[in-house]
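Whether sequence alone determines local backbone shape is best considered at the level of individual chains. When preparing material for the folding task, we compiled for one chain both its residues and its backbone structure tokens. The sequence in question and its structure tokens are set out directly beneath this paragraph.
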Amino acid sequence: LILGISADKDFRHMIQILAPLADEILATQSTSLRAAPANVIAQETRQFCPNVEIHTPPQAALNAALHRAST
């Protein structure tokens, strides 16, 4: 799961719903001023999914996910 969320959204609640469904999470952060920091997303998601990595910018997260899918 690639996860980047705006800080002005209830991202903790979103994480509570989505993170337990994932085998791994790639936390990322867009260049938007409203973006939640990737390290905060990662910290919150580790409560529900132990396999969390930080990849910024979002393209790096996508590249990492595509690489995993091809191996």
In short: The chain is about 40% helix and 10% strand. Strands lie at 2-3, 25-27, 52-54. The mean pLDDT is 96. The longest helix spans residues 58-70.
